[in-house]
């Protein structure tokens, strides 16, 4: 692998570098910024000035009118400037991971993430990134800090994992004794220079970029025209104006934020207003990431969607962006469309998934009333290949920043297009989702004799899904809001991926500081699940973390172990690599294999000097935090170093439900909102269990 040097910005000032056209966007993420636009109108296409004599209007054309985009992607002779500098505006849940993976897979490209939030930028440049995603920390370290030269044997390891690590740890000394530092089977990976940067210098970095990604937050609007369904474009419009003012001529503007269909026209008009006579190409490149698997989704994307204007320059711009992705994504997975199709596809994808969840939750309500079992119903219908089994798990509804917002955006789009039946259809998806959540909370109150006064209630899970600390639109928050109104003595909250002080601050901000125990309210956030459940009258499971699962032990000898940790698929050694110079994906696969094959390998005497998280000895030292770093102080005072944003969460094993049962108050109610418990097994431990989609006592 070649040594990577920091890439200087390239200037696109030739006619070939001017890429004009239009497009639109994707998912939520980023910072807020002041602006005047706070609604999402249905924009009708208008003609704008031509570039190279080509029509740049955004009406949908047949691709036969110009050279097809697919041809442009495959035509290596097509003239398109190489991408050497990318600026991502927005350092949140989309911008941060997306930029990190692009930089990781393209050592020759300088990738800079900019954000006005100084605190967020500080955390990205420290040991404490602001978000947690499995695998993200390793990728950020490699791209942000660079790497050291490493040596390993390019041969499949012996049967035990410790020998695999020994191959790596002894390879360097072996290499030193060989002619020229190489021998058959030995691979040397050159050091790489940092190419991922985080800064608050927004205008400067935009002005240097060949490609500008816009990945700022686009939440639902809650005031004014369209309140409750329209998309709030405040931050997006503000960033577009800044980009228009500072982007270099010919830069490619890429919309990553999820925005209403036909937003590309707004972008083109904003660019034209601020820079008349200067033309930019606008692409739509929506992301399809799921919280908790964002890195996996980026590294192994099932598709990359790029929308562009139906002009040769639009196709060249799309090909330039595609060249960034083909570093690790097969060309066959790159889907090209016109810009409006790309915009709409993102909204429809999330809306269809949300619809499926609401559909099975509606059936769960029927099951609770009739005595049917929703899991058995789901298994039966999921066996039909036309339906499939995915997204048929009943629960308390979906959360997160995307599903609800995108469904409502589709509702507003239909309303403005005078399609009331379409709007009503999709609005029912949201109605059913809220019904599932409210039905669960009401069921708990009914089982507790319609009063929570003097009782402690425990909530297990605050994030909206497992393996993430993303709490946006979490169903747990609304359940807590409902329970607070019942006047309980205490509402105890535990989440294995959320840091208690941050969770406490968020709940106080969203529900009012008076609900917090420190201000006389009932809400307390715990760092220990057993303390949260101690003396509790009822436990509500609101997030399906593996730690919360329970399966009744069988008579098999290894049954006790099976109740502690869910077995993981055994990884295989990716070596030998076919390429003389393994790709970053190859090296990441080897890194992951060495880490997960034998967690105890780092205790080996052969590796006493190794970083337990760096089996290839490739990481460069992380930047030091300042002496007054608030995150370091938080770790020291709360002891939360084993989870949260900075470190991958390591499960301590499943909860001991027998222990919890012993310390709970009779009659030991447990309300399973995510279907993670063996009901009969729990009843044998003395619990009364109520599950979604099953008839209960209430």
From TrEMBL:
Residues that hold NAD(+) according to the record: 218, 258, 405, 472
Keyword Cell membrane carried by entry: no
Pfam families according to UniProt: UDPG_MGDP_dh, UDPG_MGDP_dh_C, UDPG_MGDP_dh_N
Entry keyword set: NAD, Oxidoreductase
Pathways involved: Nucleotide-sugar biosynthesis; UDP-alpha-D-glucuronate biosynthesis; UDP-alpha-D-glucuronate from UDP-alpha-D-glucose: step 1/1
Protein residues bound to substrate: 346, 391-395, 399, 465
Region (Disordered): 1-43
Gene Ontology molecular-function annotations: NAD binding; UDP-glucose 6-dehydrogenase activity
Residues annotated as domain UDP-glucose/GDP-mannose dehydrogenase C-terminal: 458-574
Biological process annotations from GO: glycosaminoglycan biosynthetic process; polysaccharide biosynthetic process
Entry superkingdom: Eukaryota
One GO CC annotation: nucleus
Active site residues of this protein: 402
Listed Polar residues bias regions: 1-11, 23-39
Keyword tRNA processing in record: no
Alphabetical list of InterPro entries matching this protein: 6-PGluconate_DH-like_C_sf, NAD(P)-bd_dom_sf, UDP-Glc/GDP-Man, UDP-Glc/GDP-Man_DH_C, UDP-Glc/GDP-Man_DH_C_sf, UDP-Glc/GDP-Man_DH_dimer, UDP-Glc/GDP-Man_DH_N, UDPglc_DH_bac
Enzyme Commission code(s) on record: 1.1.1.22
Catalytic activity: UDP-alpha-D-glucose + 2 NAD(+) + H2O = UDP-alpha-D-glucuronate + 2 NADH + 3 H(+)
Coiled coil: none
Family assignment from sequence similarity: Belongs to the UDP-glucose/GDP-mannose dehydrogenase family.
UniProt protein name: UDP-glucose 6-dehydrogenase
Species per Swiss-Prot/TrEMBL record: Diplogelasinospora grovesii
Lineage of the organism: Eukaryota, Fungi, Dikarya, Ascomycota, Pezizomycotina
